[in-house]
Amino acid sequence: MSGDERTGLRERTRRAVRAELSDLAVRLFLERGYERTTVEDIAAAAGMSKRSFFRYFPSKEDAVFGEAEDVAEQVAEAIRARPEGEPPWACLCAVLREQQEAIRSAQPGLRTLRLIEATPALRARLHAERDRMRELITAALREHSGAGLDAFTADLLTGTAAAALEAADREWMRSDGAADRAALLDRAFALLSPSAGGQGIR
Amino acid sequence: MSGDERTGLRERTRRAVRAELSDLAVRLFLERGYERTTVEDIAAAAGMSKRSFFRYFPSKEDAVFGEAEDVAEQVAEAIRARPEGEPPWACLCAVLREQQEAIRSAQPGLRTLRLIEATPALRARLHAERDRMRELITAALREHSGAGLDAFTADLLTGTAAAALEAADREWMRSDGAADRAALLDRAFALLSPSAGGQGIR
DNA sequence: CCGTGAGTGTCACTCGGTGACACACACGCT
DNA sequence: AGCGTGTGTGTCACCGAGTGACACTCACGG
Prior knowledge:
- The structure is a homodimer.
- Chain A is mainly α.
- Chain A folds into two domains: 3-60, Arc Repressor Mutant, subunit A, CATH 1.10.10; 67-201, Tetracycline Repressor, domain 2, CATH 1.10.357.
- Chain A has helices at residues 9-32, 39-45, 50-56, 62-65, 71-80, 88-98, 100-105, 110-118, 120-145, 151-174, 181-192.
- Chain A is elongated and about 55 Å long.
- Chains A and B meet through helix 9, helix 10 and helix 11 of A and helix 8, helix 9 and helix 10 of B.
- The structure holds a DNA duplex.
């Protein structure tokens, strides 16, 4: 190897091209729509061949989702680090509250989110991503809570937590990004835990 | 028109071919996997051309999902028919309990469900379907509950209900179809409504 | 017997995605 | 200097899901 200060030259240029390509792709999708923009359009606009596009992204969708660092691993880790004997729902709430910044920074911004929302293929992809994460988190939660937590209840718990996150996200989008996401998440959890004194979900 | 007893001859034969084709497709998918089975394989096995397959189903996926009658419309109707002033969560629980037979008879059976579970493309499609239904139901719920129910809470409610249904379904699949789905759904709702006396989710 | 229309096969095409090959360029080595 | 070698690239050929267009063939009613 040669002059690889920090992260290596090749890796750096590759990342730069990827980012530029992703940016370009999203811009074109927003202008002309996802379906009406072909991979060849993007490649041509970037001055490369279709084949080269696929050397940067395994699929057209991936140009939108870009990196999507695996925040699920981090959340799972945080769950395992929780005090033993803590009730699973409290554990989930606490971790999601703690990690919400990390979760969101790993997700697309408002304008990209709108694009995804409006495009069936991208929505499907987002769902798949979230499903994968939920599975990891469910496993971590069961590991944390021992034999007292059956698979059924664990599914229900993570499913409910996902609903809270999603409702908060949707409300945030409705407000054009103006709403306080942390406060929304708190509100969602409060509604789901009527014991806390609120009027709850009922 | 000619001899159209009941539903019309053409319509009947069309339905019959569709059903046969769908059956054949699912069988092939289970044998050789969804991705490794081409539309041409299915068409050939059914003695028709690829083009004709697409005259019966708009896409390969649709051969699996078949009819999927719109049960969401029915559920929305049931929500609107509920007594005025009923709290939204109670309304949701009651309607989903009442309609669960209808909901399930409109959904694929165990073996098809497993196929879907194992195939990313089909999972995505199922999610999309469920999303569409959830939107209809959310709208109906807001209509039923008047101005007291904001969009955020409505999203949270239907999202949570969806989590209950999904958890019940997953447990049912885990039990190879042996579990009592109605009882599972009741358990899920009970866990989500700790006020009822159970230990709840916390 | 003749029209009409629905169902079909065939062909050509688009678009996402993959494999194979050849070329160019930058590096490290002797 | 010349030589490999690895990495990025373009090109070409291909597959599979869909779509559009056109021609054919039956079964039907007139």
